[in-house]
Amino acid sequence: MRADLLALLPELVLATLGMVVLLAGLASRTKRQDALGGWTILALAATAVALWLAATSTDPAARLFSGMFALDHFAVFFKALFLLSSALVVLLSLDYLKRNDARPGEYNALILFATVGMMTMASGTSLATIYVGLELMALSTYVLAGYFRREVKSHEAATKYFVLGAMSSGILLYGLSLIYGTTGTLDLAALARSVGEGRASAATLVGVALLACGFLFKVAAVPFHVWTPDVYEGAPTPITAFMSVGPKAAAFAIFLRVFVGGLGPLEGQWRWLVGGAAALTMIWGNIAALTQDNVKRMLAYSSIAHAGYALVGLVAGGQAGTQSVLFYMLVYTVTNLGAFGFVIMLESREYAGETVQDYAGLARKHPLAAFGMLLFMLSLGGIPPTAGFMGKLYLFAAAVNAGYVALVVLAVLMSAVSLYYYFRIVLQMYLREGQDAEPAALVAAPWTERVIWACGAAVLVIGVLPAPFLAAAKATVGVLGLR
Amino acid sequence: MGFAINLLNVICYVPLLGAFVIIFLLKQEQSKAIKVVATVVAGVDFLLSVPLWFVYDPAGPAFQLTYVHEWIPAVGAKYHVGVDGISVLLILLTTLLGFIAVYSSFSAITHRQKEYYVFLLLLQTGMLGVFISLDFILFYLFWEAMLVPMYFLIGIWGGPRKLYAAIKFFLYTLVGSVLMLVGILALYFYNSTGLKAIGLPGLGNAPTFDVTELFKIAPQIPAGLQFWVFLAFFVGFAIKVPMFPFHTWLPDAHVEAPTAGSVILAGVLLKMGTYGFIRFSLPLLPDASRQAVGWMGLLAIIGIVYGGLVAMAQKDMKKLVAYSSVSHLGFVMLGMFALNPQGLTGSVIQMINHGLSTGGLFLLVGIIYERRHTRMIADYGGLAKVMPVYAMLFMIITMASIGLPTLNGFVGEFTILVGAFNYKVWWAVIAATGIVIGAAYMLWMYQRAFFGEITHAENKTLRDVNLREQWTLIPLVVLCFWIGLYPKPFFRILEPSIQRVVEAVHPDYLNRPVAQLPVAPPTGRGQEQ
Questions:
Q1: What is the model's pLDDT at position A195?
Q2: Is A393–B196 a contact, with Cβ atoms under 8 angstroms apart?
Q3: Whole-number Å distance between alpha carbons of A379 and A369
């Protein structure tokens, strides 16, 4: 029992501190609210320490709480990634909240609760644990999407997200119940044994298909993506940034754990489904992004497209595929948070400064920040020497190795297409000059700027010297029960 | 420490360092200092590359001055650089044209100078990196990274349709190179673990992207895989060259780019495509290369004739030179896919020649454009009277481009035609008409622009070339004469490398009972004995 609780320490610490932040936000007066952001960062840092403690003293192979929870390398990798992305999002929100007169107490607390949910998902080795984590994350995110109560767009985003999200949870639950009903277990290892003996009934397969639909909704893959652009556009921008990295990476974590791990023996059955979704996602995400004038919508479609690339790694499966998805999530997190950081800096108040034209001439006025944005756009497009290139290289290499050459050809062609819309922003920043557009002013946002620099540096470092980061992803070898 | 004393690394990264100096130490307003730093850096880089000519030993191992270091052990990518005879010449061409491009921009570029010189220097590092890389991932990294500065050079300092031209250039080349990446991955996995789902077992070697390692397995690669990889490489390289159906980005990019951009684009970037064929496609995929000969020859010949005919119809000088590039690169490809020593040698020599003469032509057009802000041939006429020195330089470079004996173009085209003749007589016959067409459009342009009466009053007061402009052209003229009169050192430096390519792609060739024309002057090796 003690070992069980020790492994759960990071979640316990973070949940407790989340409540402290919530109460402190309620109790403190308006003037002292600034400090709450600092406390939130401290809470995440404390959780990181707890994670380190728990990871070093827990047997990675152990299944805790009667097989419902594991703290293997896979989980640790994702938890560290979630802590990193949440911390960056909190930093991005500091200036933003102040600018928009929003109360940071509940906001930061909700981010922490969502993080607890994501961390639980990454560790779940039973479908029940995974579902509980998922709902905790989802509920917190619904509220965050609608945090600007007076803003109609924010309202709309939250409502759409909630209704569609609830429906997808329903589909997911239905799939879970079918699987549980036909195999008699929610435990992934037992499930793998059960379906591995070739006794998967038709009802199980229907359950697997429904489960796949639920997960595809969570990662925003076509045809379950329709909520994404509206929600991304309407939510407060730091929350959009958060949704595009944290919950998405968490969804990929459970996708990998359930499908490559637990349902691995059925891969012949689900591969064509997920592979088809990957192809559709890459095609539609990239093509729809071409015509978007609103940068947040464009980044929403771009994040759909990136889910498609990551699904290619999932389809490739095996150790190489799993590692490549992990590495890609890291790459995508730093890149996308940086890009959203720039969007946040540009938004002087609420939803101003969101169209592509608002970026005209920024390179002259803010050369450093614009250079950061250039790096992020190159990285999203997969151009070396940025992290995005290494991420895609590793993903596509895994898929070619597994023999999915056609899917990879589609993926590389689509990433060439994607450069067109990423470069629309670059074009505005660098190629348009003062005469036909007065450069919009970037608001002074010191913390946002620091996040951009940190992400920009990370994008370059991972792009040029990816070895240690690949090694971290590689340390997860074998934890999903892969041969 | 080893990294910093390797000559190739130094040559490759000096421009990058220069770019950092300009970014961090100089302000936009210090335009003079920026120009001086950029010129000095590019000049020093050229001087640093000159020793390559002497250090590289044609009789030595295939790749020299190599430097290997672990880079991404997880996938087996190494930092591996090295040069053979082909890359030595191309590096020298790159550093020379890089210097000239910087030096020629002083008066042409008047706004956003800091960024301009930074991008030029970054481009320089990218191009040099392509020519020294002996690891596929490293090669690919430079190959694509280089697109970004070129995009900005066209897009910021280009002509009226610069935005269209810049993104067209970028996307065209990108589509080609991403497919090339898939080809690289297929080779990589064939060498190691195989491609599981399509049932292709691998050779089981340690995974590596090292080109020299992959050369060793070239004969074992099954013909089917070779075909697909060749196709993937072909798309990447042929767009860059550009070969006939893929050439449409080139006139746009050339015409809209600033002068220095055109010089680099024509002089070096196009060579990256032909270099890709000779470095990777031929030795790695010998069977597929031999099978593709007919098609490649056909496309090359179409390029030669079509490019020439379209050039003849142009009213804009820069567009004319751009289409002439399509024709000249057709010659390069024709010689290469004759797959014999003469053709391949001529092909590399012609790469250098084209860099010198077309680079020179773009410089010359740029000089007159700065004065009159028009490139229409019809706006000139009688220039020889007001700008005698300019007219003389233009004449020499024109003759070099046409292939007049005593100048470099003749040596390259003649060698290529011998190679083509050895392979198929009618190839040489049709290609030779390309030379006639070339003479026609170049001389016709020259005649209209330089001879006759001065029909436009504005042209009466044109200044002749100044000293700086002369100095951008003199090195090119000297080299044109050098290669034209005494090409032996160039042949000598190329011979063993070409020999290796032929051995790889056409192992039986050297045993064929055919009389060979002694195109290359008696080799150094023979004389020494």
A1: 85
A2: no
A3: 15
Interatomic CA distance for residues A304 and A286, integer angstroms: 8
Among A405, A409, A470, beta carbon nearest to B198: A405
Give start and end residues of each alpha helix (H) in A428-481. 446-464, 467-474
Sign, CA torsion B230/B235/B238/B244: positive
**Is A413 in contact with B167 (Cβ distance < 8 A)?**
no
Q: Is A483 exposed, middle or buried (0-12, 13-18, 19+ CB in 10 A)?
A: exposed
* Single pTM value for the model: 0.91
Residue B514 pLDDT more than 60?
no
- What one-character DSSP code corresponds to residue B135? B
CB-based contact B106:B88 (threshold 8 Å): no
B528 close to B361: Cβ distance less than 8 angstroms: no
Helices (H), B192-268: 211-217, 223-240, 249-256, 259-264
Q: Using N-to-C axis directions, what is the helix angle for B162-191 and B147-157, rounded to 10°?
A: 170
Min Cα distance A378 → chain B (Å) is 9
CB contact under 8 A, A420 and B171: yes
Say how far apart CA B473 and CA B259 lie, in whole Å: 13
| Contact indicator for B251, B201 with CB cutoff of 8 Å | no
Among A385, A405, A431, select the one facing B186 at the smallest CB separation: A405
Does position A165 have pLDDT exceeding 80, yes or no?
yes
Confidence of residue A32 (pLDDT cuts 50, 70, 90): low
At B512 the pLDDT is: 62
Mean pLDDT of B243-254: 90
Dihedral of CA atoms B215, B221, B223, B226 in degrees, nearest 10, equals -50
B83 membership: H or E segment, kind and range: strand B77-83
Cβ-in-10-Å burial (0-12, 13-18, 19+) of A410 comes to: middle
Q: Is the dihedral of CA A461, A464, A465, A466 positive or negative?
A: positive
> Does the structure show a pLDDT above 60 at B427?
yes
Interface test with B, best of A419, A428, A462 (most B CBs within 10 A): A419
Q: What is the DSSP pairing of strand B77-83 with strand B64-72?
A: antiparallel
Residue A148 near residue A350 (C-beta atoms within 8 A)? yes
* B168 neighbors B250 (Cβ within 8 angstroms): no
* Closest chain A residue to the Cα of B173, Cα to Cα: A416
pLDDT exceeds 90 at position A278: yes
> Which one, of A132, A129, A102, A133, lies nearest residue A115 by Cα?
A133
Q: Which of B356, B176, B386, B339 is nearest to B266 (CA)?
A: B356
Residue B478 CA to residue B212 CA, distance in Å, equals: 36
Determine the Cα–Cα distance for residues A168 and A216; give it in Å rounded to an integer: 9
Alpha-carbon span A34 to A97, nearest angstrom: 9
Is the Cβ of B151 closer than 8 Å to some Cβ of chain A? yes
Residue type at B496 in one-letter notation: P
Residue A76 makes CB contacts below 8 A (sequence gap 6+) with A51, A55
Q: With H, G, I as helix, E, B as strand and everything else as coil, classify residue B70.
A: strand
Closest listed residue to residue B352, CA positions, set B318, B329, B382, B375: B329
Q: How far is CA A164 from the centre of its chain?
A: 18
d(CA B266, CA A122): 53
**What span, in angstroms and rounded, lies between the C-alpha atoms of B266 and A131?**
59
Q: How far is B194 from A401, CA to CA, in rounded Å?
A: 7
Predicted pLDDT of residue B40: 95
Nearest chain A residue to B157 by CA distance is A431
Q: CB contact, 8 Å: B436 with chain A?
A: no
- The nearest alpha carbon in chain A to B198 belongs to A403
**How far is it, in rounded angstroms, from Cα A55 to Cα A76?**
7
> Could you tell me the pLDDT band of residue A154, with boundaries at 50, 70 and 90?
confident
Q: How many residues does chain A have?
A: 483
